[in-house]
Amino acid sequence: MRLNLRESLLYLVTRLLARGDRRARTMADYQPENVQRILLVSSTALGDTVLSTAAMVAVREHFPAAHITALIHRDYVPLFEPTDFLDGIIAYYGGYSHFFSTFLALRRIHPDIALILHGNEPQATPLAYLAGARFIFKLPNTSRFAFLLSNQAPRLSWLDMGHGMMQRLKVAQLVGARIEGARMHLPIPNPTREIVTRWLAEHDVMAADIVIGLQAGASSRGRMWPVAHFVALAKMLLAVHPAYRFVITGAPHERLRCEEIARGIGAGAIVAAGALSIEMLPALVHRCAVLVTGDTGTLHVAVAVGTPTVSLFAVSGPDVSGPAYDLERHIVIHHPAPAGVRSKTDNDRWMAQIPSDEVAAAVTQQLSQFAQQATACPERSSGGSS
Q: 2-174 adopts what CATH topology?
């Protein structure tokens, strides 16, 4: 009830302000040559924000002299601070938490335009408007706050968007950015690479070792492959090559789950969850020969840094949230759940129907390709530049 009251109040305030706003704010009035300050909103989960980097770079290339600020969830700010396509970052705390201070920080920027690449509503669009943005662009444009948008027509829904990365690129295209051939971008600064290398060495993982990443967590249990399946997969692979090393990744709150997998595997497994901070993730994933993962943000990190993946889908669709490009480097295993099963379900029975031996065959295929690449390009196997 309280949240509904807040949303209703926010709706009323922005309605009244927009009614008295005499600025020309439609697409027909937009003049890109006058843009000096840009706000990019991508304030949701890790994977959502990594997907947004393709659009962020496209906007930077179209507006090389503009000052570009991004509103990013506070948990992921350190990951994007080294980027060269953003001039500033403002932390988003989720929902209405710190709403007023966030509004004030955005207001100080006073952007000419705002692009909502992926943001929580009902906060994202009103925040962009209250920040002072004259032109606001967002797709889909079907929410109750669409009256604040410059692109109110044609009305497009999520079904019109395609892959998640393309949805963000379509927003960038509205302001004139070129989106052909766009790719995600995540920096791997040398200091973070060195920290990851030292951390691995402390766990007896050396440069010549083949490392397999296992992403244990996800945004919901319905997107997690069961612990026993991860353990069975690792044992199948170790039976063929006892020297494989496994790095188990996940959020800090998923550490117990990761440790359970590590105990099942034995001495060849180490847990990164809670041991390395978020800004180390690109370097760690890049060091892996292959990453096994569900529908997670770490999957998109792997695509961004060029690490081959085996991704597992059941309750969500790879056409929307699977690997966005370089499809020849990524194997998708999709065992669709029955129609009507929600993607955020906490029931992992559908992921459990993906057998370990099928995943093992896919990992073996990826490792075979990795061995060929390592022969041709030795720095790839030792965590060289992406």
A: Rossmann fold (3.40.50)
Question: Tell me: the pLDDT tens digits for 225-246?
Answer: 999 999 999 999 999 999 999 9
SS3 state of residue 186 = coil
Identity of residue 95? G
Residues of the chain with CATH 3.40.50.2000: 2-174, 190-381
Please, are residues 133 and 154 in contact by the beta-carbon 8 Å criterion?
no
Q: Are strands 245-249 and 113-118 parallel, antiparallel or unpaired?
A: unpaired
Q: Output the six-digit token pair for 77.
A: 């700010």
CATH superfamily entry for domain 190-381: Glycogen Phosphorylase B; (3.40.50.2000)
Quickly tell me which residue has 């290398």 as its tokens.
Answer: 197
8 A C-beta contact, residue 296 and residue 263: no
Whole-Å CA distances, 116 to 5, 194, 215, 290: 24, 35, 29, 33
Whether 30 and 150 have beta carbons less than 8 Å apart is answered as: yes
Q: What's the predicted TM-score (pTM) here? A: 0.94
